[in-house]
Amino acid sequence: MEHNNGEPTPVPRVAVVVFLLKGRSVLLGRRRSSVGNATFALPGGHLEFGESFEECAAREVKEETGLEIGNAEFLTVTNNVMLEQPKKCHYVTIFMRTMMGVDAAKEDQEPQNLEPQKCDGWDWYEWDHLPQPLFGPLEKMVKGGFDPFPL
To answer: What is the C-alpha R_g of the chain?
Structure first.
């Protein structure tokens, strides 16, 4: 691997994140991380070797929120090079969608904060009144007019 001033050159990682939708609301949590600290983001994480996007989405949502989801559907992919962060990184991010009460195993589930070292907590936010600041890749999508809701 090439080195930059003695540091290893970062390599792109693959993340899978999930738009969990309930009515016109989306589930967001405030990050506790070296990347995007104190910003609101979707649940998600790293794709593991051999894992499908759907498997990763279900695993990450369960690990972070305790919610059991059914089949998440693919929405889009983004290429995020984050050079302004304290820890420079490059993520190819797979965005998935699950509708609570439609795709979820049980619609009456409530999110729990199962990784308090990584997130301050989860809550539902109306799409037209999202909290600030949003995590960079999500903010870029929102400002670009992206709409995760089905037609």
So the answer is: 15
